[in-house]
Each structure stands twice: as structure tokens, then as C-alpha cells.
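Quick note —
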Amino acid sequence: MAAALKQFCGSVFWNSSFLDRDDADLPLCFEQTVLVWIPLGFLWLFGPWQLLYLCTSRMKKSSVTRVYLIKQVLTLLLLLVALTEVIFTIAEDLGKLPHPAPVSRNPAVQYTNPALYCISWLLVLLIHDSRRFTSRRDSGTLCIFLILSLLCGVFQLQTLIRQAVQGSVTDVPRFSFFLISYGLQLLLFFTSVISDIAPEMKEAAKKNPEIVASFLSFLTFHWYSRMVLKGFRKPLVTDDLWDLKDEHKTEHIFGKLEKNMKARVRKAQRELEIQHRKTKCHSHVTDHMNGLSKAQSQDALVLEEKEKKNKEKGGTRDSSGDYAKKWLLAAVFRTFAGNLAKAVALKVVQDLLVFVSPQLLKLMISFVSDPNAYLWHGYLYAALLFVIALIQSVCLQQYFQLCFELGMLVRTALMAAIYKKMKNMKYKDERMKIMNEIISGIKILKLFAWEPSFEKRIGRIRAQELKGLLHFAYLQSISIFFFNCAPLLVSVATFAVYVMVDENNVLDAQKAFTSISLFNVLRFPLVMLPMVLSSLVQVNVSTERLERYLGSEDLNTSAIWHDPSPGCAVHFSEASFSWEQNSDATIRDINLQIPHGLLLAIVGPVGSGKSSLVSAILGEMENIKGHINIQGSVAYVPQQAWIQNATLKDNILFGSPFNEVRYQQVMEACALLPDLQLLPGGDLTEIGEKGINLSGGQKQRVSLARAVYSNADIYLLDDPLSAVDSHVGRHIFDKVLGPEGLLQNKTRILVTHSLSFLAHVDDIVVLVAGGVSEQGSYGTLLANGGAFAQLLNTYGNQQENMTEEEVTVSMGEELELSEDPEPGAEEIPTDVVTMTQKNEASVQQKSFTRSLSANSNMSLMKAHQRKLTEKKPMTEIKGQRLIDKETMETGKVKFSMYLQYFRAVGWCLSIWVFIAYVGQSAAFVGSNLWLSFWTNNASFYNNQTYPAAQRDLHIGVYGALGASQALFLLTAALLAANGAVRASRVLHARLLCNILHVPMIFFDTTPTGRIVNRFAKDIFTVDETLPMSFRSWLNCLLGIFSTLLIICLATPYFAIVILPLGLLYYFIQQFYVATSRQLRRLDSVTRSPIYSHFSETVAGLSVIRAYGHQERFLKHNEKLVDINQKCVYSWIISNRWLAVRLEFVGNLVVFFAALLAVLARNSVASGIVGLSISSALNVTSALNWLVRMTSELETNIVAVERVHEYTKVENEAPWVTAQSPPSNWPSNGEISFIDYQVRYRPELELVLDGIICDIKSTEKIGVVGRTGAGKSSLTNCLFRILEAAGGKILIDGLDIAVLGLHDLRRNITIIPQDPVLFSGTLRMNLDPFDQHSDEEVWHALELAHLKSYVHGLPEELSHPVSEAGENLSVGQRQLVCLARALLRKSKILILDEATAAVDMETDHLIQETIRSEFASCTVLTIAHRLHTIMDSHRVMVLQAGKIVEFDSPEELLKQQGVFAGMAKDAGIVGTQDTAM
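Predicted structure written out below.
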């Protein structure tokens, strides 16, 4: 082979003597063959694939650019040089030109190399052209080819330069050709570094420069430098971040995953069915063996068929273990196989290179030990160490980039899949579930003084949680101890065994430090192993959950038909439905035909299945038999209104196009125009989470307006009038639902408890126990004399007394009654924010009302429009935005936050942890220095027996230092674990305690999610992430100091290099941390809307599905996820940007450590060199890790900052004070208001101004007034939810302001409008402190008409109540609240429209119970419906925060004042009308 190549080149191919000298060189033949063919081979192996873009690209060919032209000109010049060289050689051989050497012909290499280059440069020209079909016009293949060509060309270049210097150049023309070619290649390479951006890609490049970045820019993440610079100059905001690439967007990723998921699920389900069949076949054989008769077996088969049908309907949801498995990971792998394959390939290359560095270290130590070794060996090893480290860094960072990107894409796809499934996964942590409920129902806790009970409940769960956390922390500490000590213990054991098995075995530097380097390779995988195992367990659990959830059947709507042939809008055919699979039917055997344009009322007692009937039409229930046929589109108004966190206008439009005329009609018909005057931004006012700044009635009317605006064919209305005042209800019925309303030609199915409207409907269906008991028109049912007629005769008399004319009240008449504003908005219960807004708007309100004419609805609309027009120039009106964006800190986290955490850990414990880690580092330095000393000693005993005593001393000390290192590490880890759990306990306890003590206004103006986030994400960070960050950061910092100290001790000159490298490191770190910190904050802030949107969607699923808006919500979810992904992806890239640069600094440390060892080899022992370079090899990853940990630590300490923020929120008054009331207080129930004044905040106007009244013992008082009059404020003042601004309230002569809040609140009782229950048992919801016996609880349930229902439950009083009481109907929840009040039996009772959601009969029974059981109590009834307070002793009429009338109902009606006007609105014409 060598001889053939010698003939091919015309010179020697290889001669080792070329290297065996100080000025070593390579033979020219080797340089002209091997070093030329390596880059050309690479080009021809990978280059032709680049030409596929010419055939397969879907992109249009981009324009010619200046960079493209320069590249092509340089390539053409290179082609011409190669061609000229071929022609020149031919001319020489033909004798046209003189030969440089005395031979007849040129060697073959002079022909082949230029010819190969000619063809190669033609290929390069084509590749350049093919890249015009891609967005990134620079080719990675060409870039690597040029790098290889330039590196391989360096050897020939230095050979030729040497010849030129020595004056021995024999072939000047070829010398010139080579220099020109090398120069042009260098220029071509530099041109390739520049990003070549086509004019048509400039806009796209501004949005995302990654898509046009050059290959080297892509490898080094240089394209991201602009973002890092921007982040350093100013805090980044979401708009600063670049857009995602199309292939990273949710729509694209989810599309790919969904396709693979469907295929895999089908395959898994087929396998499951085969398994079922096999199981059944086996059971049949068993049955036959058991001797079943033919008849019996047939019966069994019939039963099996029924079970099979039920199982098919239930799909995979039936049993815990019976569902399609092992398909999700396969679908994920299939979707992202390309990314995974690339990542694996890069990691394999990097792992192989990891083992090269120890071998180079071995050669370097050998070089230092050998004084006869040539100096160029040392320089070569140093350069190779640097180059290998550099290639390792590039491969590792690209691998990490692909892995993080893969994680992001999988997360995105699964989030989209989970959202699309549109069901609620209830895998919630128990503590968080209760915390969520506490915050949602905080008003009830405060009114009933239940905070201590729930604080203890949370405390018990938290104690268990921390116990588990401590056990986990101890296990983690032990695993860290074992896995960190493994390389150390292995090295001690290996060296001890090596030197002791044979006395001739001497441990020298070469063996010791090469071994140490190889052992250190194990360190990172061993540290990561426990985390990987933990992650695999989590992946397994999560995969099972996701497979069960994503693989389950979608909502089965096969029983809902859309056949256009039948002539009615809705047709029930033998329809039976249930809420759960294989449970009893909730509605049964319904046969019902509802013609087009009919107004149908559905009535019946609580729990009779009215709401279920509506849900069945919507396809929300499980079909047992029969079907429902629907003709036309559907709009749905649920019983409990679902409101989005959006503007009022957006809530009504709900994705429909805006039509001004229709919009105004709907607003007027739904009595919403007057509400716009209360809202600071009109219909552009932001509505808070769950409609927090609207009253119950306002929410219901917005929900109704949404339905009316949608212009559907069929309207499903689930008791929409229960939450509104009677006169507003009448207005809505007349303008919207009734025969003359906007929906007069539509099909309307109205569930209602209100008997007053039944005379005006077309048809009535009476439900009892899920079945139709009666059906017919109002007159027909009355004539039949059935249960419905009896109900009407008993409870509906007062509504029949009024004539049609008296019922129908125009808006003009309502507005004429007083200067108090509109009729259309009922009293807002407990809404502090809205009351504040009302007060701010009061001046506008009054002038607006006065300006209206008596009967002009159009003037009302015009005034509203005028008001909006006046406001338009302003960007945002004061108060228009209810909830400010979540505050996001910028800049560095205050040092005081670190001190806060250390205080929570305990100063003593913190100091001991630090000492233990310092001890570990000192032992590490000592063991390394001792090993260096030990190996240096070996040189003194060359060809001698190593003394046994010396050997044992070396082993003993090295082992002792290793053991002390291990013990210090274990001590530090265990102490840190204790400190972390202590900090978690302290910070959570402070947060919980303070949150339960803050006033109600805080909860009204802060979204629930924001508070819950503190207890969920932030406490999780404090519990688990922050301790790990602190531990890693401290370990890393001390490790780097130790390593640099060792290198400086080994080679003192290294201290000179440390300074510039340290400065470079510091600047890179400063640039990065500023950007990274802000990106993590942006990630947190942009993640909140995803969760909010998800929970909002889950809450409104039935509404979204009813309107058919799933696709719109999916798109919105994708948009929110993509915004978050922008932040996540930018953060991932910022990490890689940093890592590449820091690893470069680390690689320079390795290079300089090696270079200084070479320069000082005569004065440095081999052991010291081994120690220095093996330490330097570790510093690269350590430096990278330190900056990562610094950023991570600063990001995670933000959790302490956020928790601390909520521990400093101002508290309400103390729960208990030194002045306690008497034990039987209040014994009489007398209430006195003495010139009482109250405002919501110091800077706002009074909402109650100068209230003076005395309420006698056992007196029954009704409190009325229009919206904003101050009714709810009065209730809030009695419980001191609001504190007095002047005057005082006396109860039985005692000033309530001097009492503790709990002393006050425990002694008065309220039945609230919204029935709030908590998850737990029924008994816990009635008596959380266990103060009453079971007999007393049963008695209270009997009085609340719940005893028979609770007796029928399997667990009776221990019956589990689900979250927010969802497993009870709204009516049943209100009865539980009544039982709660009956159990307390205090002398003062406040009723806040407590019977809105129950039927007339239950309402009557409740009123009777209140009259009898609270006869000896003082009762204040906040009335939305005047019927409920007509039998009160006196009625208090509030207007603009003042008492304007206060007398008996009879007297007030005679006076023809404000109350008489309100009574006329409500259709009450005389004193004979009594409450039900």
C-alpha cells in the first residue's frame, strides 16, 4: 500500500523519522493524499443529499443576495484555480511548460487532486443554489467540509512555509496555487459564518432569527445574543420575545401527536377486546365444567350481552384496571422519533469523546515525566485536549437543546390533548383541594368564625405532608451520599488493592490520575441516577393516568339525534338517562314532543330532575334507553351562570360577530343597560373571575343576554329568573321569554319555580321523581285538579290576585319612582368591589337618571352610547379594569429574601450546614494533594522495593480523608434536609395564618388562582426545589474554589490566567442571569392564564358544548400555550447560549492548565501535573453548573418573595380581645345603630351615612332598597366585615367594635344567598367544631326538611360532600345552610334571600320553620323579593346609604313613598298579600 502511494505521489508516503525530531513534520505525500481526501470524502458522502431540496422543497426559490453572490464567485474562483492547476500539469507533461523536477512526467496525484477539487467545487455551486429553497441558506455540510479542509490544509501550509523560509521551494506554481486556494477557502468559510437572509425572509427573520441563522451561529446559539443583550439592558416582556417556529406551534405538534394517538389507541383497544374474549371463552368453559344446563347457560349469555352493552357504553372508564394501556409512550415516540434519534446520536459521540480526555492526560503525564520527550508532544496534547473538549461541548449542548426542546414539545402536545378531551381530571392534592375551597368560601368561614377549624384541618394534612417530605429528604440525602461517594470509595479501594496485591506495583501519577479522571466520568451519571429513577416512577404513574384519561371514550351523544324529518323542535322518545354508568335512571321513560316556537315550562319539586332533563337534551348524561331528536341550533342558560374573565361585551357576544342594533335590543330586553351606568367602563368593564364583580342577578342576566344574542333556534333556560328581583323577572319575561318578547318565535324550554309566569306559557310539564307526572296548558292542569293545581291553590294565590295590567310595568314607570337608579340590577350580595365602583359612579348615576324621560327606552340606549362615546378617547377608564395584572418583580431579588429563608431554616442550622460543606471541600482538596504527594514519592523508589510502612501510611491517610469527605457530605445533607423541612413548615404556617386573618376586600380584588398559586407552586418550590438549588449551588461554588485552588497550588502561574478568565466568566454570567431570571418570571406569569382558561373551560363545559364553541376554545388554548412556549423556548435557548460560552471558558482553563504544565515541565512533578489537569477537566461542567444554579436559585427564591408578600397583607381586627362578652350574650337580641357610618376604603365616599335606628328584641325586620342602597353593607357591618367610619352598633347594649371578631361572629347567624359547602362529611359542614351531639344535628336536619333524605343515604351523617357540594342540588345545599343556622340557634338571625333556588312548597316549609324556630329571635331579612318580608313587624327602606322609611309594611304602603313604589313594581297591591 505504502509503495503504491509512493508511486502515486512521487515521494515517500510515510516515514516515522519525520516526527522523531524537535521540528517534526509530515511527509508531503501523506499531506497530499490522506489530508486532502478526508474533507473531500466527507463532502461526497453528505453533500449530494443537499441537492434533494431542488426536487422536494415546497418553498419558492428565494432571491439572489449579496452574500449568495460572494459565495458563488469565491466558489467559481476555486473551481478556476483547480482547473488551471489541471491544465498547467497537462501542459508540463506535454512539454509546453518546463518541469520543476528532472522527470519526464508529473506524478498521478498532480492530476487527481485538482480534478477531484473541480468536481467538488461544482457540487458546492449546486448546493449553494439548492439552499435557496430553504429558509436557512447556509449549509452545515459545507461549513464542516470547509473547517475540515482548512484544518487538514494547515499541515501542508506549514510545510510549504517552512520550505519558503528555508528557500527550498522547488515548485513555485503549485506553491502559488495552494496559497490562492487556501486563501479563497478561508474567505468562503468567513462568508459562510454570515447569515444569508433573502429579502422575502427579512420580516420572518425579525420575528425569529433562528430560522435564518448560519450553521455556526446555530451551533453556538450566537443568533440569540441580541435577546441576551436586550435582557441585560432592560427587563424583558412577552412582546420582546421572538415567535415560535411553525413546527414548534401547538397546532402543528398536536396534529402530529393526535394522528399517532388515534392509531395507537385503536390498536390497544383491539388488543384489550381480544383479551376480553379470551377471558370470556375461559369463563364459558369453566361454567360448562360446573354443569350449567342449556337454559341456564342461555340466561347467562343474555346477562353477559347486557353487561357487554353497558361496558361498551362505559368504554374504558368502568374498572380501575380495565382500560387500553401502553399506547401513549409509543405514540409520543412515533411523533418525536426524529428529535430523539438526533439526540441519541449526539450523546453517543459526546460519550465516546469523554473517554479520550483521560487517555490524553495519561500521555501528558508521561510527557512531563520523560525529560527526553520532544516539546511539540506537549503542545500537541494541550491542543488536542482543547479541541476534544470543544467538540464535546458542541455535541453536548446540541444534545441538551434537542432534549429540552423534545420535553417542551411533548408537554405542549399533551397539554393540548388534555384540553381537547374537555373533561375534568380530579387528581388534586388533598391540601390544595381544601385550600381552594377555603379561599372560594372564605366569606362563609368569616361569617361563621370557622377559620380555626379549617386552619387545624389544613395543619393536620400539612404535618403529614412534611413528615413524608422529611422521610424523602433523608432518603435523598443517603442516596446523594452513596452516589457521590461511589467514585471516591472506588478510587480508594482500587489504589489500595493495586498496591497491596503485589509489592512491585507502584502507584505513579500516570496510573493514579488517569484512573481518577475515568472515575470522575462516573460521577455525573451516578449523581443523576436516583433522579432518573424517581423521574421514571413519576413518568410511569403519569402515563397510566394520561392513558386512562386520554384513552377513555368521549361524551357519548349517540342518543341525541339531529333528524330533520319530524315536525317538532325537540322530541323525547322513551328516553331514560342517568348521570353515571350503570346507575339508576335520573329521568325515566320520557315521551315528549315540543313543537317549534313553543314556550314550555318545566316545574317540579327539588330533586325531581328538571335540570337533568335539560342536561339530557345537551347530551351531558349517559343514555340508558330511547333517544332525543333536536332540530336546530341550541342556546343554554344554566341555573348557576357561567361568566368568563373577559369584558361584559365579550361575555355577551361569546364569539359571535358584533351587530350594534341587535346588541342594543338584547341589552335593553335583558335589563342590562342601567347596569352599564354602575360599571365604570360600561360594557368594556372587565368582569372578574367567576363574575366576582357582578351580583347573582347580574350574572344571570348576562348569561341570558349571551343566549338571546346567539340567535339560536332552541333555548334551554334552567331557572334563569330565580336570582333576579320580581319586577326585573317580570321585565325579562315580557321582553325576552314571553309571547311578545324577543324570542317569541323561538322554541323555549323554561325550568322555573316561579308560579306567576305559568299562566303565560304555552305548555307545562310537571316532573316528579324523574318522570312526567302531568302535562298540558295552564288552564288544563288547573281543571284536572292534580298535584299541580293543589300547589297553585296553596302557594300561588297571591300571584293570582293581581291583574295583567298591574303586573306589566314599563321601564319608564320604574324610573319615575325615585331618584334612585335603575330597576334592572338587584342588590349585590357581599361584593365589596362592585359596591366601591357603584359609589365612585354615584354622581354620574344620579344625573343620568334625572336626564331620562318618563317612557323612553331609546333615550336610555342613546345616553349609554353617548356615555361610551365620551369615554372613547381615554385608553382605559378608572375602574374599568377590576383585577390588575399579577405583579412581576424585575431586577435582582432582594438579599433580604435570602435572609428570610435562612431565618425560617434557623441561623444555627444554616451555619452548621455551611461548616459541613466547607469541611467536605477541605477534605476533597486534602485527598487530592495527598494523592499527588503519594504518586510523586513513587519516583524515589524506581527499581526498588516500596517500603510497606510508607505504603500503608499513604493508603491510610488517603482512605481517612476520603471517609471524612463522605461523612461531612452526609452530615451536610441530613442537616440541610432538616432545615429545609423546618423552613417549609414555618413559611406555610405564616402564609396560612395571615391569609385567614386578612379582610374580605383582599379576596374580592385578588383572583382565587393567584392566592392558590402561593399555596401550590410557591410552597412546592419552597418544599422541594429551593433546598435542592441551595445545596447544589453551595456544593458547586465550593467545588470550583477547591479545583482552582488545586490548580494554582500545582501551577502558580495559573493565577495570572484566572483573572481574565474570571472577568470573562463574570460578564457572561451577568448577561445571562438578567435575561434568564426575567424569562422564568415571564414563564410563571404566562402559565397562569393557561390554568385559568382550563379551569374556566371545565366550569363552563356544558355551556361551551351547548353553543358548539369547542373549536374556538381549543384555538384560544393553543394561543395561550404558544405564548407560554415562547417564554419556555427562549429560556431553553438562553441556557444553551450560556453553556456554550461557559464551556468555552472551561475549555480554556483546561488548555492553559495543560499549556502551563508543558512550559514548566522541568520544575513541576508529574503528580502535580496530573492533579492540575484532572481537576481542570472537571471545572468546565462545574462552571456551567454554577451559573445555572445561581440563576435557578435566584428564580426559586422568588417563591419566598411571593410567600412573604402575602404574609405582609394587612390583617382585619383580632379574633379575640381582652374584653369578652358575657357567656349568654346576646340574651335579648336588641340592635342599636347610633349615627353609624361606613366606607370601603379611607379615600372613598361613605356607603352608609348616619344610620340611626333601634331594633327591639324578637322583632322581625325586612331590609329593602334598590341596587347600591346599602343593604349588603348593613349586613357586612353587623359582622364587622366592614369597620365603622363613624358612630357605633350596640347589640344588647355592648359596642361590637370592642369585641374580638370571633366573639361577635359566633353569636349571630346568617343564612347566605349563595349556599357554600365544603368537601368533607355532611356533619362537618353542619358542625365543624363538633360542639353538638348527633341528636341535635338530626333535629336540625328534621326542621330543615332534610332528615328523610339524609336517612336514605348509606352513610347518613358521614355522607361525603364533594367539592363545593356538587353532589347535592342547589336547593338541597340551601336546606343544609338552614340546618346550619338552626344548629347555632343564636338570638340574631340574618336572612339573605335564602330560598331563591327551592320550589314553592319547600319555600313555604322553610318560612314556616323560620317563623316557629326563630320566634324568640331578632330576624333581619335582606329582601330581593318583597313577598318574603310583607309579614315583618317593620320594614327598613334604604336609599343612597340612608334610612328613608322605617315602619310596618301596612303603614308604608299607605304613605305612597319609596316602599309603596317598589311594592307596585313587584305587583303587590294590598296588605292581604303575605309571604309564603
